[in-house]
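Researcher: Go.
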Amino acid sequence: MKTPLLLSAVLPGLLLPSSAPRPKQPNIIFFLVDDMGWQDTSVPFWTQKTPFNNLYRTPNMERLASRGVKFTQAYACSVSSPTRISLMTGMNAARHRVTNWTLRADGSQEPKHPALTVPGWNVSGVSEDPSIPNSVYATTLPQVLHDHGYFTIHCGKAHFGAIGTPGENPLNLGFDVNIAGHAAGAPQSYQGLKNYGNDENGAAPNEWAVPGLAKYHGKDVNLTEALTREAISAMDQARATGKPFYLYMAHYAIHAPLERDTRFAGAYEGKGLPEPEIRYASMIESMDKSLGDLMDYLERNNLTENTIILFMSDNGGLSVSARGGTPNTHNRPLASGKGSAYEGGIREPMIVRWPGVTTPGAVCDRYLIVEDFYPTVIEMAGIRRYKHVQELDGISFVPMLRNPAGKPGSEQERPLFWHFPNWWGPTGPGIGSTSTVRRGDWKLIYYHQDRHMELFNIREDIGEEHNLAQDNPLITKELAKNLGNYLRSVNAQMPAYKDSGKTVPWPDKQ
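Model: Structure:
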């Protein structure tokens, strides 16, 4: 049994005199897209527009960006569950140990690595019950919000815990409402005419069938649209309680299976696109319509000025399989895609609008990482003191929201860390069992299987085309030490070699 660690946090800048009136808590919408790449939008997150930005139509992302702050260097993990657990706990994946995607408590969903034995990671996901084996015990973000007066809504993909564990159900993690969330990380189908993968009696023939949307079965209603309608109904329910709401709008889109949303596919016909890319583009536009529908709801109900919207993706865009065209090119100028330690696997589109705080149309080029959302959202909610059982790695990015164009401060010398001692399955550039650190403009990737290192200057080489490790041995050594020290400090797990049984050495102890 894990020993609970009880910590309390007092957020800087939020201590008010006892006589001061408590400000009205804002509503918060966290709009999380699945597998959306940095380039899967008409909003450029680079210094220039690219052919991808000219292809996709996301007018509501443009609308949100024109009213908020666009982040050009926002990072997540390279696959889904680690990101989602970091969002829920404020912990880095190396610490929480949900280092790959969850589904079954025995971990049988993970392919066998050809040369490495994967460590005993937390295959059961997150839990607020410390007795659950192979899980990370934590006080979740929605639990903190719930305990401080919020009506908490989960809508869409959960993917927090394995089948049969408490974390499978968002209601066990601090949410008041759960719409269509369960253990699986993808839908069997996006089509209401196919019952979203359920059989004709509404039963789930496998773990991928989307639960809880029977009212749309047999109807020509795309899953993204159904979730949006249900989210709006849940916000109505929240408003009836008189409480502020936290809506975690976690779309299954644009995760495979790639299926046309017939409302939007026609706009991409006749452009020379392969069929999978027509499907993909229609799913992006469908997601964007959902964002617009939620923004329209806020405007109709005079909620816009007291509602924060955070937009983010959970990992890089899929590029190694299922897509049309040349693999590993769909996120260019970034290298590779989902599952990769390269920028295409971890750099995400991110926009935040906080009325009265963010400057419309602002751009922030400073970097942040997914676990930073936990303390940030809590600070946004005006929560001054809260208890949590886990140790936090995240740092609030509220200062960046208040001054996005400010000169990079100490936070840009703060190292960011990624740790993936697992085997995703597909092969491709930067895909494998790795540990990574970025500090300032420099990024070092350590490959566990053959222990080689790659060093890139991200500012000068965003496409990670030039490995500078041999040319810069001192920087390589220094970053390897940063990475090794951090991994040891959080007791990170490392894989072992199948042929010898020896654990892969730390990056600075080869």
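Model: DSSP finds eleven helices and 18 strands in the chain.
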